[in-house]
Amino acid sequence: MAKINVQGREIAVFSKKEEDYICLTDMARYKDAERTDYIIQNWLRNRNTIEFLGIWEQLNNPGFKPIEFDGFRKQAGLNSFSLTARRWIETTNAVGLISKSGRYGGTYAHKDIAFEFASWISVEFKLYLIKEFQRLKDDDRKQLGWDIRRNLAKINYRIHTGAIKENLIPPALTARQTNLIYATEADVLNMALFGMTAKEWRDGHPDEKGNIRDYANVSQLVCLSNLETLNAHFIQEKTSQAERLRKLNQIAIAQMKLLAGDTGIKRFDKGSE
After folding, report:
1. What is the pTM of this model?
2. Torsion angle, CA of 265/267/271/273, rounded to 10 degrees?
3. pLDDT digit string (tens) for 253-264?
4. Extents of the domains making up the chain
5. Quick count: other Cβ atoms within 10 Å of Cβ 154?
6. Which residues of 222-261 are buried (b: 16+ CB within 10 A; e: fewer)?
7. Between the CA of residue 105 and those of 10, 130, 147, what are the distances in Å?
8. What is the tens place of the pLDDT at every residue in 213-236?
9. What distance in Å separates the CA atoms of residue 163 and residue 160, rounded to the nearest whole number?
């Protein structure tokens, strides 16, 4: 459950089946902080709202009940007509609105519908809502991109450690000895790319959390992924550690020169900061 701040008001946002829903209850506080349910019901009884909701459901929800929708549409706008979100959902099998209870309870709407509700509240409020929602999605995309790059390095590292296990670790070694070999091989890559071991980096950065790879930029992570694959290949070819380090260092230098001059990578790096 994420939150965005729109003109000093926190508004909850959550995703369901890769679709974003925004809390109408939080939005309604902009108009009347004490009677949010009344604000939403007043919006729902509007004929234009019913028409909009019905068309949205017909376009996006194959399980929507059109006959029940027609019943609401005929009554919409009458003085005697009233409608709650829960009644709309249960009667028409709608998916554009969600009524939640509990800690994050309230009425939520698919972003398309939420923006329509925001227009009814205030055009200014809608514009600020869209701006902050877009900022949230941009931050999510940046985080996703960073996670993908980190996971790519982790996947390649599994290939790397698999080659170490098959070719460098005798069965009789203890777990502690095995870990020492993994650490040594990890430092082959660290030396080739960063010019220092993990311990040397920690000694030089006592106040930093994590390890040297956690502070790598995009170019370094791309290069590291390539080095892990190549090192696994060299290990399988029975190349000595010293020779592997020499080769990997030369490859790292060449690749980093290319990556450092790539404007697309530079923009990616800047966006991840």
Report:
1. 0.52
2. 70
3. 888 877 766 555
4. 2-121, 142-272
5. 12
6. bbbbbbbebbbebbeeeeeeeebbebbbebbeebeeebee
7. 14, 22, 30
8. 888 887 788 888 888 889 888 988
9. 5
